[in-house]
Amino acid sequence: MPIDPHMLPWLTTFTPAHAVVAAGVLVRMGVAVGAGAMPLATGTGLRVQAVLAAVLAVAATPAALAASPTPGVDGSSILGLLFGEAMVGLGIGLAAAAVFASASWAGHLLGTVTGLSWADDFGDAPGSESAGVGRLAWWLGLAGFVAAGGHEAVVAGLVDGVRSLPIGAVATAAARDGVLELVATMPSIGLSLAMSLALPALAAVLACHLVAAIAVRSVGFDPGQGLLQTVASLVLLAAVCGGTDSWIGGFAAAVQSPLERCFHDIRP
Questions:
Q1: CA 166: distance to chain centroid?
Q2: Domain ranges for the chain
């Protein structure tokens, strides 16, 4: 049974140029989701990422059609637009991934200081080493981010981003500079977030080492490295788990501004 065109009036106004814009939205969302999900790569399959990118593209296409200039429909123009949108998606995704990974970086830093950054003996694949404390810290930060509604802000930011940076606008020098500046500055911002998250627990661990060193020298007893490392590890776990509320809430509040910059502050 043929579909009545009056039931879908938008089909009568959908032009090849609109199809090019929709393809650009899909490419941007797909690359942004793929790059931004790198901290989640071990738990998020490619199929889930593809479905998420498709849903975001469908949601963002109407706004993109209203905000974007009419693109060319010849082969070279289409390829140039799709390549440019892939670069925009890559920049946004990598910047967001650096922010998301800051909690994991904080945990890796704490694990390295206390000696808890061991290799994962249960992983047979090469390069499967991971820090247990780093993964714990990352899950704590992610839990706080989701509990605070951060995932909704990310979705809304990706969809609204087609207004602040329309499809095809990356061809301008100002937009290219904005994307490059975003990619260059987000790792340093993520590192500063990691340091701010790790400092309280790191101070507790260093204080433990200092007290242990003074006590050992005072009594003239050498307990060996194993006992001191065990005590420092227990202090670290107590500091991280005991300060769960501040750790989770602090991460959710700290990443809000950098993520806003990722999704809204790139303007041509």
A1: 22
A2: 5-264
